Amino acid sequence: MKLLFVIPEYPPHFGGGISTYYQHLLPVLANQGHRVDVLVANPFAPSFAPYERDGVSVSCLAPELLNRNLPQFSHYRAIPELQRYLATAWSAWEQMADQPYDLIETTDWGLLFLPWVVMTEGVSVVVQLHGSVGQIDTYDPRQGYELQGHLIRLLEQLGLALATGLMTHSRANGAAWMALTGRAVLNLPPAWTPPDFPEAVLQPSDRGLVVGRIQSWKGPTVLCEALRMLGNQAPGLDWVGRDMSYQSPQQTMGAYLKENYPDIWGEKIRGLGVRSQTQVAQLQAAASFVVVPSRWDVFNYTCAEAMAQGKLVICSDGAGAVDLIDHGVNGFTFPANDAAALAELLHTCATLPNATRQQIGLAAQKTIANVLNPLVVAQQRQKMYETVLAEGPSRKPASDWLRQAISPTDTLADPFALLHQLPLKDLASHTLQRLWAKIPILPRLTNKLP
Description:
The protein folds into 2 domains: 221 residues, Rossmann fold (3-Layer(aba) Sandwich); 164 residues, Glycogen Phosphorylase B (Rossmann fold, 3-Layer(aba) Sandwich). The protein contains 17 helices and 16 strands. The strands form 3 sheets. An 8-stranded mixed beta sheet has the order 3-4-2-1-5-6-7-8, with helices on both faces. It has a 6-stranded parallel beta sheet with strand order 13-10-9-14-15-16, sandwiched between helices. Strands 11-12 form a two-stranded antiparallel sheet. Strand 3 and strand 4 form a beta hairpin. Helix 1 packs across helix 14, helix 5 packs across helix 6 and helix 8 crosses helix 12. The longest helix has 18 residues.
């Protein structure tokens, strides 16, 4: 088969969850004799030269194409992030639409799938559901992005209903999109091979570990609440990951936690910042247990990494990686947002006999080796592709309204004409507030006035 993957990242340029997902799958598909091409289309990342890696041909979205198309989405100029998502998706489709492929796979993130399912005819288009912009906005809303969030979710819901096939790697995520689109969603585990873990250079610790961005939907508040419930019996934990903004660009999640949980954040939970993959692996090897407290997550590779090292893992059922865990057999699970249940498990793990820990750790390692085996997953995926191709590419046509909403148009003479609808008083007040925030010297000068 000739397969094209239109995705926002691929190694070695980017290292997020989507990159991890495909770097373990695509070389195996190529090794099975399929032609595997990748087009990396990211609205916010620099371009790079084409290359081939492990039998996979990788190219980048042409920046001149994006620069040409961006002004043609000026009808979204008042929502610049959405404008860039749509211009990127359209440019990727324009760059590759006339190439002969048996099947095209793209992602829900960044609306990359939209032109393929709306404009493409005669080709099967599969969308892999990794975690969409609309979903992320739902679980971590930002002030000032409310209009964008609603528009993107509507476009996602309408567009995904038109795909030839929908896939994900989490039962919960599949159920969510099935409810939204009325479409069946196939659930396949990700392909993943544990790295060659470095020899332990850290002393075993009695502390727990969380690996992930310090972000609302990663569950830091749930963990703080659980530790507060345990009082003096609460174990210490380390959190590795980048601190993210929360609610507004002026506030980080870490600052919010420090203000609202001063007895926990910085005390019971130590933020270690960003660490290299080797350092993370060493910390995982030394940790007494690993917690995945996510309120929502399509999949969490740090859960798989910890299980592959034979660690005791406590995972929220809000994280898709919970599908790997048989409670009490190869790890522990708790309901998302349930701080009391997490507190009980933290106490249980602290008192678990060493023999039981080792038994659970060995079972976890076997699960990873069997369930995420790249060869097995690639074979399952090939069968799915064959089924999709046998059924044919025919699908429900897009409405003219949806086509118009995602298509380029003549550049608007005044892309901010919509501001004429707002009272001048409100615009002037907002402009002054922005100037006040952008130019710190203004408050100081004001204070010096007589």
